[in-house]
Every structure is written in C-alpha cells, then in structure tokens.
Amino acid sequence: MTIINADGSPMKAAAQASVTAYQAADPISQDLAGWAPALGSADADLLPERVDIVARIRDLVRNNGWASGAVRRELDTVIGAGLRLSSKPDYRALGLSADWAAEWSDQVEAQFRLWADDPARWCDATRHYTLGGLFGMAYRHYVIDGDALAVLQWRDHGAGFATTVRVIDPDRLSNPHDTMDTETLRAGVELDGWGAATAYHIRKRHPGDWFTGGRDAYAWERIPRETPWGRPVTVHFYDKERDEQSRGVGRTPRRRGRRYPAGSPPSDHPAQGVHGRRDSGHGHGDGGGRGLSQGRRRLRARPGPDSGQDRRGPLGRRRRGPDPGPGGQRGPDSGEIRPAGDRGHVLAQGLDAVPRP
User: Fold this and answer.
1) Residues 6+ apart with CB under 8 A from 266
2) Staple 125 to which of 139, 166, 238, 276, CB 3.0 to 4.6 Å?
3) Which residues contact 129 (CB under 8 A, 6 or more apart)?
4) SS3 102
5) Strand, helix or coil at 209?
6) Taking a C-beta distance cutoff of 8 angstroms, is the pair 244, 319 a contact?
7) Could you give the CA distance from residue 129 to residue 117 in angstroms, rounded to a whole number?
8) Beta 197-203 vs 189-191: how paired, if at all?
9) Which residues lie in Basic and acidic residues bias regions (predicted)?
10) Beta pairing class for 234-237 and 277-278
11) Residues 132, 115: contact at Cβ < 8 Å?
12) pLDDT by residue (tens digit) across 136-159?
C-alpha cells in the first residue's frame, strides 16, 4: 500500500533513527559511513602533508590560466602598485599639539618615500624591487604557499638608509639537515616554553638547488626573531587557524583533481572563489541570472583600465587580450571568454583536505 502526499507523489518512508545522540556521529549512516578522519594536532595534521599541498597548488597556478589569473587579480587588488605610509602619531598621549603631529608626519612620510621608492632599490637586499614590489612578492608567497617570510638586514652602503629587506622563499624554512620535529623546533621554527617563535632556521640555498648550491645547499643559518633590544630581524606571517600551528598553508581551495572545460572552471575553482558571483536565476544584478538555472555561477572578466586591453573593438567584437603565459590558457584577467565548446586537458586542482561522503 502506497501513501500519497497532497501533490500526488509517494510519501517517503521515515528515516532510520540514529544510533547516536548527534547524527553527525552516526557510524552506520548511509551518508557518513566510511568517513572517519583522524583527530590530530594542528602541526600533526599539516606538517607531514604541507609540502605536497604547496607543490600541487603551485603546479595549478603555473599551468592553469584561471588559477593564475585569480592570484594575479587578488595581488593587484590588495597590493596594487604598493602600500603608502600614513603616519598619524597619537599627539594627545604624547602631550603635544596637532600642528606638531602634522609636521612630524610629513617629515617621516617623506623620508619613508625616499627609502621605499629609491630608483637604486637599496631597500631590496637583491636590488630588484622597490618596497611595493617586495610587498607584492611576499603577498604572493602568502596566497600560494601560506607563509610570507622576510629578513631585515643592515647594509651600510652609503645610500642614506642601511635597512634592507630580503624576502625568503618559505621552502628554505626547515629543520637543520631535515631532522624530525621536536617540542621546540617545528618545520624550521624554533619555539620557547610559551610556544612563541624565537628564531628561524633558514637553509642557505633552496633545496631544489642541490646540484648548483655546493656546500650551501646543505647548510642552515639560525636567524633570531629580533635583536636583544627589540628590533625585528625576521618577519614570518601566516594564518594561524588552530592553536599551536607553526606553519601556514596556501589559501587556494584544496580539492581532488578532475576534468573540466578549460574555459569554464567548476563552481569550487579558485577563480570562482576570487572573481565569480552566484546568480540565483531571478535577474539580480547587471543581466543577473537570465538563462542560468538556480545556483549556477557566471564568471565576468573585467579588464582594468591599465591592462592594455579593450573590451570591444569598433565592430563590437571582443578583442584578444595579452598572451596567456606559460599555462597556455586565458584567465579572468585576459579580457577574453572562451567558447563553451573549447575543452582543455586534465588539470589537478590540489588536495581535498576533507573527503566528501
């Protein structure tokens, strides 16, 4: 005998009662059976697998135009041409006047610009970037690798300012001679009894340069976090998602590899997370969800005013943007949207940190 709902459809049988107080802990549920992740500390879960995660994220950014464009677009949005110092001393707490604060701020900001924007680029230990470029490189490491690492060095080169910044590849931050982690040494970070970082062990050459690095490829340098009088020496920034987490991991979504069209990333692709918007199918926004079913994403490529691209040519045809780069695909920053039938190759999309039932 079949019981029918008011709309005429067969009524479903009642769900089997859970054997646990919380359904999320049900060991025999059809949806959750087999999903039994391990319960470990932050470092125990991350550090043994961090190298593989970072390597896969880098490979995705190198070889996929959508992921590469997503990183570049976020870098342009957050850093742009650089960061500007805005000095605002608390003159009330200092017992001084507002006129003094304004004059002092102007002088400090002028001196900062002389150092940060020096055409000779003495602020960079390698003399390649101005300070804005160093910020951009550090932020790119943070997005992809999860760590931004830099050492503030003192070089008396006679250019007026002796402070130089050296952005370090996070791969070089590791335990000396790749030894096992201990209670006070985690992935190159030396900790005190309170769990605070006190020093960093940095390899003198990248581990991938073992064939050209000579002895330095197997040598480490211990660099303190700060001087005895409190001057910062090493800057290590990462998102600490859990207590006692010693290293970071890239913010690019970690999913299993899958096959998909080169011009239309899946809904959980990094490009969607940075540039996409969800249309509900009810016509919201500029053209909104027309022709889209509920829950579908539409990616809009909007080249910036300084990108050297034109949205439309004289005849209303979309012009091609710059070369897609080594990945071979045009991403959201190229000003071009691929036709739906243009299919690409198999692309790995990183590691799925949480298995789906």
Assistant:
1) 258, 260, 272, 349
2) 166
3) 121, 136, 137
4) helix
5) helix
6) no
7) 9
8) antiparallel
9) 237-246, 276-287, 333-345
10) unpaired
11) no
12) 999 999 999 999 999 999 988 777
